[in-house]
Write a structure and sequence with these properties.
By secondary structure, this protein is α/β, with parallel strands linked by helices. It contains ten helices and seven strands. Helix 7 links the parallel strand 2 and strand 3. It is an enzyme of class 3 (hydrolase).
């Protein structure tokens, strides 16, 4: 359960605070950490009778160990993955293909037991004692997100349709360089916080959000071998190809959830992605020309956008923009999200864990080069 502490009152005020100058408040956060390392398979010495299939699975275990890391072993691995891909076509006539594997049956059984006592047979129960703060438009929302991220101690979960690493969560950017999203994540990873991110892998011929740049920029924040490098994990999903989607025949679908969970204590859900074009305020300014100096600019580079004139272009170069600010106005973005403190945060985190593990199994089973940590939750 979650225990509310007096210090939260200051934090709740911080969730809705506007631009301010001065020291940041100290935010006590009690951490309920559910992240665990990948579970190892353990076999007791007194293991009982094995089936014939188990006995003949690896008749030469010593030879199998010697083959690891050799060309013969690589050929076998490729053959297994190729067989899996081809086997996906069998799912066209197997209507139960999402519930017939051992891990799926195990998860279904757990879900059934958990749902038994829940109203409407839902995966989560009704929970009282939550504090909810709504945000209309992006200014106050992104400020609140920056506060929550900065005070992360253990874990950060992010799921977005589009995530722009170079997004400034506080404006004007000239005075808030340290509040750029990628810089916050870098600081937290170096401090030991585990960061897990899921972004939608777009159909490149139809969308310009360039999730490949998102992955490259985020995963490259800390050089390999440096402290914190292993603390950032990012997945793009789904992989749009015939072999992977043959079983469902749904090629142009998208992850459209926007979720942020910090330390299982604070969560944000709603309609605002952490990406270009979403930061706005209630006045919805159309112009961003400042003869007095660039330090007053609010919408830098790609963030000044008008889809009625042209879509985003070359988003990997965040400073560039083919839309002339002197000729065109920006298109405002009116949206709503909310912040939550309380027991419901656990259920939002659990939902992220389920999504992460689903994407992990889907990608790791089909691509031998993928190595992704598994998260341990209540259901999965």
């Amino acid at each position: 359960m979650f225990a509310m502490v007096r210090g939260r009152k200051r934090y709740r005020k911080g969730l809705g605070v506007r631009h301010r100058i001065g020291p940041k408040p100290c935010l006590p956060m009690q951490v309920t950490l559910l992240f665990k390392p990948h579970r190892q398979c353990q076999v007791s010495e007194g293991e009982g009778h094995r089936s014939l299939k188990e006995k003949v699975a690896h008749p030469f275990p010593d030879l199998r160990e010697k083959l690891k890391g050799t060309h013969l072993h690589d050929v076998k691995v490729k053959a297994v993955h190729t067989t899996h891909k081809i086997g996906k076509f069998h799912n066209l006539i197997n209507k139960n293909h999402r519930h017939d594997e051992d891990h799926e049956k195990e998860t279904d059984e757990k879900r059934s037991r958990i749902r038994e006592n829940h109203r409407f047979d839902s995966f989560a129960p009704e929970r009282n004692g939550n504090m909810v703060k709504w945000y209309v438009d992006g200014r106050d929302y992104f400020w609140a997100v920056s506060e929550a991220l900065e005070h992360a101690k253990e874990t950060i979960y992010i799921e977005d349709w589009w995530l722009s690493p170079e997004l400034f969560l506080r404006r004007p950017p000239f005075y808030n360089q340290e509040w750029r999203l990628d810089q916050i994540l870098k600081r937290k990873a170096e401090a030991g916080v585990k960061i897990f991110i899921i972004v939608y892998k777009e159909v490149a011929s139809a969308l310009t959000c360039n999730s490949q740049h998102t992955k490259k920029a985020i995963m490259g924040l800390i050089p390999e071998g440096k402290p914190g490098n292993e603390n950032i994990k990012l997945m793009r999903h789904p992989d749009h190809n015939v072999l992977e989607n043959a079983s469902d025949m749904t090629f142009y679908w998208a992850h459209h959830e926007k979720i942020l969970v910090v330390d299982y204590e604070v969560a944000f859900i709603g309609g605002l992605d952490l990406c270009y074009g979403r930061w706005d305020e209630k006045q919805h300014p159309l112009a961003d020309v400042h003869p007095s100096g660039i330090q007053n600019e609010i919408f830098p580079g790609q963030d000044f956008n008008n889809n009625r004139i042209m879509d985003f272009h070359s988003v990997e170069d965040w400073k560039s923009n083919q839309l002339n600010k002197a000729e065109y106005g920006r298109m405002p973005w009116h949206d709503v999200s909310m912040g939550i403190i309380g027991p419901c945060v656990y259920d939002i985190a659990e939902h992220f864990v389920l999504r992460w593990n689903f994407c992990k199994r889907d990608k790791q089973t089909c691509q031998q080069s993928v190595r992704i940590d598994r998260l341990i939750g209540r259901i999965d």
